[in-house]
Amino acid sequence: MRTARRIAAVVGAAALAVALPMPGVAQTSPTRTPAEKAERIASMAEPPPPDPAVPVPSGSDPDTAYTLASQCIGSLNQGTDLKNKPWGQMQLRFDELHRFATGKGVLVAVIDTGVRAHPFFGDRVQPGGDFVVKDKQGLEDCDGHGTEVAGIIAANPPANSDIGFRGIAPEARILSIRQSSANYKGVRVPGEQALPAGTLETLAKAVVLAADQGARVINMSVDNCRAVAEGPITAAERQLQAALRYAYEQKDVVLVASAGNTGEKGCPDQRNGVDPNKPTHIVTPPWFADYVISVAAMARNGDPAEFSVQGPWVSVAAPGTDIISLDPATNGLANLQVLADGKQVSIQGTSFAAPYVAGLAALIRERFPYLKASEVTNRIKVSASHPAAPGGRDNLVGYGMINPIGALTTLIPSEQGVRPDAALDIKAALPAPEIKNWAPMQVALVGAAGGVLLLLLTLFAVHTIRRNRPGAQREIRGSA
């Protein structure tokens, strides 16, 4: 299969999903006092509680009229032969993984730049809605981003081909909702410049739209970053919070989002502040970690990707560099993208780590259909390869690189109704120090010394007697 592709300008918002501990999950959620929680809310390490006065957003229409402002993506047409398996696929052991589940029948919503009906999807892509050009219904992908994200979730090349690449949940179904586009632009406020499609308000509506259409998992490889100094939670963020809460609590949907890339959508440098509990910037949707699994990116060498933004909301990590996925402009595969300056680079970003986790959630929902969204989320975090950090998590990779086989085979007591072990107040009772009785040893040593002395005296006496015998004296003179 000879493929590759070109992305014109910026390809949407990239991200990698890593989520924070979910409330009520004993295995992973930290216990905080009300004062600690209030301090975290004040520092914006986590958002304030939902406002009951904010209604659940609804609607499926674009927020303005968008027109094509840049050429849609096309193929690089370099004749690159992509037969090899991506490193992430081998790292996550797909060959063994699909013995346990394939995601069959699970509907995964991809809220992104649209999904093209690539042959490697078969007939498993269905229209879900379009907030850019309504009548396209999410089945046009002018940017290429959404098709690549969906490919990591559910691509399934023919079994008789020699193509190594495939999705983590190759039999899952995809519900495509186009919510953003860098190549379509429109004027939202009269008199102001045209802007790319995609806002927090339309993202909130897309989440509700996907949940109402029966999605069991939602992937959001789209982020918005803003400085904490800009103020408290905004009206648009409140709408997104209400939508996520609705999907998670009322519709039982597993929500996955990318953690964010440095330099994109206002995201800061990787550290995001010197104090882990006081970020300088917040990233949404990951900020709403009570509902969302946010995913960080890992590099091939096992280190966190240098572009992956950290934060107290990061849940887990997944492969996010040297990506191979579906070419949105041809019927083949792609492993390169072209930046706005014309530079060709490998496909990377937290955007492409998030779908690994969304696909894993689909596998879990197939294998354990009775689990709630919170239990699926917990299973992903508990089975991850935890970093060497207090509580088994840090702000860069969360609970660590996902372990799909572990997530599908681990026995978790809470799912069986077994309460987690409680801490026991056990006082250490050390035995009393042993007092050694040295008297027998002393008697033995004295006795042994006396015996040796007696032996020496006896030998001395015998020797003296022998020398003083008359015969002994003559023998001495005769020999002289």
UniProtKB/TrEMBL annotation:
<dbReference type="InterPro" id="IPR023834">
    <property type="entry name" value="T7SS_pept_S8A_mycosin"/>
</dbReference>
<keyword id="KW-0378">Hydrolase</keyword>
<keyword id="KW-1003">Cell membrane</keyword>
<feature type="compositionally biased region" description="Pro residues">
    <location>
        <begin position="46"/>
        <end position="55"/>
    </location>
</feature>
<keyword id="KW-0812">Transmembrane</keyword>
<keyword id="KW-0472">Membrane</keyword>
<dbReference type="Pfam" id="PF00082">
    <property type="entry name" value="Peptidase_S8"/>
</dbReference>
<feature type="active site" description="Charge relay system">
    <location>
        <position position="351"/>
    </location>
</feature>
<keyword id="KW-1133">Transmembrane helix</keyword>
<comment type="similarity">
    <text>Belongs to the peptidase S8 family.</text>
</comment>
<keyword id="KW-0645">Protease</keyword>
<dbReference type="InterPro" id="IPR036852">
    <property type="entry name" value="Peptidase_S8/S53_dom_sf"/>
</dbReference>
<feature type="transmembrane region" description="Helical">
    <location>
        <begin position="443"/>
        <end position="465"/>
    </location>
</feature>
<protein>
    <submittedName>
        <fullName>Membrane-anchored mycosin MYCP</fullName>
    </submittedName>
</protein>
<feature type="region of interest" description="Disordered">
    <location>
        <begin position="25"/>
        <end position="61"/>
    </location>
</feature>
<dbReference type="InterPro" id="IPR023828">
    <property type="entry name" value="Peptidase_S8_Ser-AS"/>
</dbReference>
<dbReference type="InterPro" id="IPR015500">
    <property type="entry name" value="Peptidase_S8_subtilisin-rel"/>
</dbReference>
<feature type="signal peptide">
    <location>
        <begin position="1"/>
        <end position="26"/>
    </location>
</feature>
<keyword id="KW-0732">Signal</keyword>
<keyword id="KW-0720">Serine protease</keyword>
<dbReference type="InterPro" id="IPR050131">
    <property type="entry name" value="Peptidase_S8_subtilisin-like"/>
</dbReference>
<dbReference type="InterPro" id="IPR023827">
    <property type="entry name" value="Peptidase_S8_Asp-AS"/>
</dbReference>
<dbReference type="InterPro" id="IPR022398">
    <property type="entry name" value="Peptidase_S8_His-AS"/>
</dbReference>
<feature type="domain" description="Peptidase S8/S53">
    <location>
        <begin position="103"/>
        <end position="400"/>
    </location>
</feature>
<feature type="active site" description="Charge relay system">
    <location>
        <position position="112"/>
    </location>
</feature>
<feature type="active site" description="Charge relay system">
    <location>
        <position position="145"/>
    </location>
</feature>
<dbReference type="InterPro" id="IPR000209">
    <property type="entry name" value="Peptidase_S8/S53_dom"/>
</dbReference>
